[in-house]
């Protein structure tokens, strides 16, 4: 059961410049800043109204976001949907024949529990399912 769109993920090459741009554009407030070494990413989440944007900058060229930037340039990277329980959603999606990137939930940015669904199953947009453990 999807509760809402949790955030839109955007790949950027210069994190500080992007934070400045989005803070100005949307009058958004920085919510979190985090680094996930194992994913090779630096990230900032910004809140604007009831919406949230996640800016992702790679720690190197040979990381998922680094390869994304080299191939497609900065821009929309993924859309995240908030669910009460990521594991339950993965099971539902698996039964429906959805191609999953993560077979089990894992720890994502900002302490969220996450799992990614392959763009092949979602019309070309990488989809993330997240639970913040509070819903
Ligand atoms: Co995300």
Strand order of the largest sheet: 2-3-4-1-5-8-7-6
**Poorly predicted parts:** none
Radius of gyration: 14 Å
Percent of sequence in beta strands: 35-45%
| Gap from first CA to last CA | 11 Å
Provide keyphrases for this structure.
23% helix; globular; 135 residues; 39% strand; eight-stranded mixed sheet; binds cobalt (II) ion; alpha+beta; single chain
Provide a concise account of the structure shown:
The chain has 135 residues and is of the alpha+beta class.
Structural commentary:
With 135 residues, the protein is α+β, with helices and mostly antiparallel strands. Helix content is 23%, strand content 39%. The chain is built from three helices and eight strands. The protein has helices at 15-26, 64-72, 86-95; strands at residues 4-11, 29-36, 41-48, 51-58, 75-82, 106-107, 113-117, 127-131. The protein is globular and about 40 Å long. The protein starts with a strand and ends with a strand. Bound molecules: cobalt (II) ion. Cobalt (II) ion is lined by residues 7, 9, 54, 78, 80, 128.
Give me the secondary-structure topology:
Layout: E1 4-11, H1 15-26, E2 29-36, E3 41-48, E4 51-58, H2 64-72, E5 75-82, H3 86-95, E6 106-107, E7 113-117, E8 127-131
Parallel strand pairs: 1-4, 5-8
Antiparallel strand pairs: 1-5, 2-3, 3-4, 6-7, 7-8
The protein binds cobalt (II) ion.
């Amino acid at each position: 059961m999807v509760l809402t769109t949790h955030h839109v993920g955007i790949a950027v090459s210069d994190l500080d410049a992007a934070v400045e741009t989005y803070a100005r554009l949307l009058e958004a407030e920085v919510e979190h800043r985090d680094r996930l070494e194992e994913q090779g990413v630096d990230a900032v989440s910004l809140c604007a109204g009831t919406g949230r944007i996640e800016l992702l900058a790679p720690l190197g060229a040979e990381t998922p976001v680094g390869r994304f930037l080299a191939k497609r340039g900065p821009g929309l990277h993924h859309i995240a949907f908030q669910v009460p329980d990521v594991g339950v959603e993965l099971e539902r999606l698996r039964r429906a024949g959805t191609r999953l990137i993560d077979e089990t939930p894992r720890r994502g940015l900002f302490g969220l529990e996450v799992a990614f669904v392959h763009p092949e199953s979602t019309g070309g947009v990488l989809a993330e399912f997240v639970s913040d453990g509070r819903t």
